[in-house]
Amino acid sequence: MPEITGFAFPNDVHVHWSLMIVMYPYITGFVAGAFIVTALYHLFGKKEFEPVARLAMATSFCFMAIATFPLNLHLGHPERAGYVMVTPNFSSAMAGFGLIYSGYFVVLLLEVWFVYRREIIETARRSRGVKRALYAALALGTYDTSPEALEIDHRAVKILSAIGLPAACMLHGYVGFIFGGIKANPWWSTPLMPVIFLLSAAVSGIALLVVLHQVTAKLWRRPVERETVQAMVRWLWFFLIITVTLELLEIVLLAYENSDAWHIISQLLTTRLEFSFISVQMIVGSLVPFILLAIVVTMNRYLHDRVRNTLAVVASLLLLVQVFAMRWNIVIGGQLLSKSFRGLRSGYRPELFDREGILVAIALLVLPFVLLWIFDRVLPIEPAAPPPRPPPDPEVGPEPAGGTA
Amino acid sequence: MDENRKDATAPASPAVGRRAFVATALRLGGGLVAFLAGVPAGAAEQADYDWTQHRWAYLVDTTRCIGCGACVRACRTENDVPGGFFRTWVERYVVSPEASHVDSPRGGLDGFAPIQTPFTPTKSFFVPKICNHCEETPCVQVCPVGASYRTRDGVVLVDGERCIGCGYCVQACPYGSRFLSPETHTAEKCTWCYHRITKGLRPACVEVCPTGTRRFGNMLREDDPVRIAISKERVSVLQPHLLTEPQCFYLGLDKEVR
Q1: Does residue A391 sit within a domain?
Q2: What total of structural domains would you count in chain B?
Q3: By residue range, what is the domain housing residue B32?
Q4: pLDDT tens column, B144-177
């Protein structure tokens, strides 16, 4: 039994939303954040992001593919999960999930297809047997790689990004809304919540890509693009500043208003969440990376590439921890304070082997990278030898004609 | 076709009219179906229950509560409430102008042992708590599948067959009245003993309360004592600023109570 300080309503001693509900916004945060990076290239024409645009899209896709897993692991009746899609109760913030999730997934699938269409067709033409059948199936029966068709692909990607960006933002903003819309819980109930979730998603997405970019560069023996790192660090710094500002604003406002819940929230922050909020989220996770990134941004010209890359990766890793801590502090922190506003329960420690335990959480974090590896096998993330433009294509006419599976 | 059948059956049983025969056959058949489907024996009584004729309300007179915990025990027995969770509970307030102490050991299940406070109390009282069956209920609002609902007679219920066990309603309830049952893995809460009140009985907690602290009534009946008390006395509700419109009313509530 958890220990209670003060008085908690007798049912308030249970943490029903466990580690999995911490994982869920963490994972969808990567979905949205990574998509923002793709959109910066496809939509806003930021050329510096070209080297990571495909990586970002693939990352977003792989995290999206498992985004529902933590939810299903958490549900008391996972076999009824489909009810949310089939018979949603639209007065519930959660009921929008079906629409938003599937809508975004369709957009993402289409975008991946349009981005890879030319390569899928070329691979189909080059290969034999099962591989050919697979890629022919992926090509969905069209083998048109004429310049006009490629131009259409290009435009489709742009339009899909334009739809995908708000969709990704909604996907994650909605996660924040789920918490922000609970008037019973003063630690959650603020209109800032969706915004904070969204901005921290951008932070986690960009931070993950800073790391992934350097890891993949090592794996594929390619140079780390200086411009790309610089650009990502600038954006990362920017999003970090706004996120932390809003996170602090929320608390400062509660304190300044001296709201009815402030006395219990201040206790929560200084006792139960002292480590995860003050130490991890604010100092190690925000202040330190803020300084590191500030060094990169303001002293960029004087930095050796190696120093810049290292600083960027260290700051990004810390930010990945920060965003996790932020999810934890909101989801778990909100359940440590009783709605009696008179008591706190002792800290929550997830089990190691539980269905919602630590090992499963680790598996959930590893899985997207496994998927990313498979993704890369099927649809190479790094364009092969000739980067963007294929050599002037001689008509490849007759060969592929009957190739559909 | 009908004509043919009439001709065929008519001579066989001239005593029993065709109409009566069909009626009996249908009744027997229906009875058989009902028997096979396992309609509970009480169904007949519930059939008389007209929910448009009721709007239930609950009244707690905190000045009368002695903290015996009989209500909590009765609820546990009546509704098979899993251990460590509560559909109703009793809180004890020990208050002085300078300080206050609140507790609810095991929800008041075993009553309350005397305590020593570091301050000299100037007043103390018990407050029974229960689902407030709010009219503007946040728990029903947030249920993603519509498993939580409010009946026409004003009771907030959970459909255990539909509940997916997401726990959103538990988070949304400002009163801590809901929980996820470790046995059914669905949300559970006070039903005002819906299985009893639709048979003309009172909720178990009201039934056993020895002091008349807990009272239950029908707001649609002009002469209902609970309706009269709520309409004539100065009643309050818990956390009124949240505008959930609780249908559980309190007499003699103190400012310390939330």
Answers
A1: no
A2: 1
A3: 2-37
A4: 999 999 999 999 999 999 999 999 999 999 999 9
**Long-range interactions of B198-205: CB distance < 8 A, separation 24+:** B198/B46, B198/B49, B198/B51, B199/B42, B199/B45, B199/B46, B199/B49, B200/B45, B200/B49, B203/B58, B204/B71, B204/B74, B204/B75, B204/B77, B204/B78, B204/B79, B205/B71, B205/B72, B205/B74, B205/B75, B205/B88, B205/B128, B205/B130
Tell me the nearest-neighbour CA distance from B187 into chain A, angstroms.
9
Q: Which residues of chain B lie closer than 8 angstroms to A92, CB-CB? A: 141-144, 168
| Residue B143 touches chain A, beta carbons under 8 Å | yes
Residue A99 confidence (pLDDT): 85
pLDDT digits (tens, 9 = 90+) for B99-133: 999 999 999 999 999 999 999 999 999 999 999 99
B192 within some domain: no
**Of the candidates A8, A22, A19, the residue with the CA atom closest to the CA atom of residue A359:** A19
B17 assigned to some structural domain = yes
For residue A282, the enclosing domain spans 11-378
Q: What is the mean pLDDT of residues A302-307?
A: 94
Contact B226, B109 (CB under 8 A): no
Task: Please provide residue B68's backbone torsions phi and psi, each rounded to the nearest 5 degrees.
Answer: -75, -25
Domain for residue A284, yes or no? yes
Within a domain: residue A4? no
Instruction: Convert the pLDDT of each residue in A183-231 to its tens digit.
Output: 999 999 999 999 999 999 999 999 999 999 999 999 999 999 999 999 9
Distance CA A247, CA B224 (A): 52
Q: Which residues contact A292 (CB under 8 A, 6 or more apart)?
A: A311, A314, A315, A318
Whether residue B202 is contained in a domain is answered as no
Query: Given an 8 Å threshold on Cβ–Cβ distance, is B176 in contact with A76?
Result: no
Q: Which residue spans within A8-58 are E strands per DSSP?
A: none
Residue A344, H or E segment: strand A342-345
In chain B, positions 74-103, which contact chain A (CB-CB < 8 Å)? 84-86, 89, 91, 102-103
Indicate whether B229 pLDDT > 80.
yes
Does residue B27 fall inside a structural domain? Answer: yes
CB atoms within 10 A of CB B4: 8
d(CA A310, CA A186): 40
Q: Which residues contact A3 (CB under 8 A, 6 or more apart)?
A: A345, A346
Instruction: Identify the CATH number of the domain in which residue A215 sits.
Output: 1.20.1630.10
State whether the Cα torsion B158-B162-B163-B166 is positive or negative.
Answer: negative
Residue A389 lies in a domain: no
With beta carbons under 8 A apart, name residues in chain A contacting B184: 76
